[in-house]
Every structure is written in C-alpha cells, then in structure tokens.
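Bumping my old thread because nobody answered last time. Still need a sequence for this structure:
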C-alpha cells in the first residue's frame, strides 16, 4: 500500500481564515507562514474548547488548497492513533469543524 491514511475532516484554507477571523485571529500578511500561524492558532483555540488539543493534528493535503483536522492516521510520524473507537472524540471533531456528516479516511499524498 502506497502512502498513509488519515481520518478526519478536510477543510479549505479559506474556511480556516474565515473561521479564524470570526474569533479575532487575523494573518499578519498574505504569506504562507502567516496563514500557517493562523491555522495553528485556530486549531489550538478550537481544540482547547472541545478538549481535543492532544488528539487533533492538522495535516496538509498536498496539491490542494485544503488542510485536514485529523484524529487518526496510519503514519506514525503524525503522533495519532491508528484508529478511533471513541465516538465522543469523533463528535467533538465534527463540532470543531461544523460538519454535517461523519469524518472520512483518505490516502495522504
């Protein structure tokens, strides 16, 4: 099997910037570094609110204007479990990103 799998929700960078702006986090400029800083601040604030700071990781989706909030991964370097059996964590992640449905598995690029 080529590549690793990740489990969570994909969101666009525009979603991240819009959501961050709603809670008062704005990028210093339009650079990739500034957008990354905003994403990390947003993830930290939202994850703290739902008690998932140590269980959620942002994972880039290569070649797309997308980031994924993940709670499981087959890549040991992500520091996440290989599977999620805690329905409460899945529900908290869904609320974190405001999704209507369940998270998905996908192949990391």
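Sorry it took so long. Here it is:
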């Amino acid at each position: 099997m080529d590549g690793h799998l990740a489990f969570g929700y994909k969101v666009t960078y525009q979603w991240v910037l819009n959501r961050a702006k709603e809670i008062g986090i704005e990028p210093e400029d339009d650079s990739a570094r500034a957008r990354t800083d905003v994403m990390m601040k947003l993830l930290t604030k939202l994850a703290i609110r739902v008690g998932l700071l140590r269980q959620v990781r942002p994972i880039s989706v290569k070649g797309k204007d997308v980031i994924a909030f993940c709670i499981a991964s087959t890549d040991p370097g992500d520091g996440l479990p290989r599977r999620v059996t805690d329905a409460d964590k899945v529900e908290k992640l869904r609320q974190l990103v405001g999704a209507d449905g369940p998270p998905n598995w996908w192949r990391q690029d």
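Residues 33 and 80 are 24 Å apart (CA to CA). Let me know if any region looks off to you.
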